[in-house]
Design goal:
single chain; 182 residues; mainly alpha
């Protein structure tokens, strides 16, 4: 039987879980998103800001990453809300445990750190595996993806929180970029 991937799976993955910080081993390309590589004139602004402002960028990135890792709580809640039983329950709770382990192992959030890039890569792979697994069960996938657009649902609330933390990080990066280009 050939698996069919729900198109929402790809959209969810692209919109939520692929961050500006993912690994490319063994070497990192020159144009890899980084505080150091915002853009031409943005680099001037970044080099001119003090270390406390750079720490703010790192904190916003950490907040975004921790928000994404809250998927473990979401999975546990969804298992209960949807009354999921058997192997499906076991697998979803296994993904929740994986994200808990990633939370415990999270290094200092800095996009120029090889350790953080590797961590973010593992996080992205965790989401990819989870979403692929969910997409294989049509009933679960339909409920999971439908919940995204309902801010009152567990998934909808989670998506809104991830979006807000991602937007805060990107707005801060954009602000630095613009200040260097004026």
């Amino acid at each position: 039987m050939q698996a069919h991937i729900n198109p929402w799976f790809l959209l969810l993955l692209l919109n939520l879980f692929i961050t500006p910080v993912c690994a490319d081993f063994p070497s990192v390309p020159d144009n890899y998103p980084s505080h150091e590589l915002i853009s031409g004139c943005g680099n001037n602004a970044l080099s001119a800001i003090d270390s406390s402002d750079k720490r703010v960028l790192d904190q916003l990135l950490e907040d975004y990453t921790l928000q994404r890792l809250k998927i473990a709580e979401v999975l546990r809640t969804i298992v209960e809300e949807y009354d999921i039983k058997g192997d499906l329950r076991k697998r979803l709770l296994g993904f929740a445990d994986t994200f808990d382990t990633l939370t415990e192992d999270m290094p200092r959030a800095h996009p120029d750190s090889e350790e953080f890039r590797g961590f973010d890569f593992r996080l992205g792979m965790g989401f990819t595996s989870m979403l692929y697994f969910i997409s294989e069960d049509k009933v679960l996938a339909d409920r999971f993806y439908a919940g995204r657009s309902d801010p009152e649902s567990t998934m909808g609330h989670y998506v809104a929180q991830v979006d807000a933390s991602r937007d805060a990080y990107f707005l801060a990066l954009e602000s630095v970029n613009k200040s260097g280009c004026s």
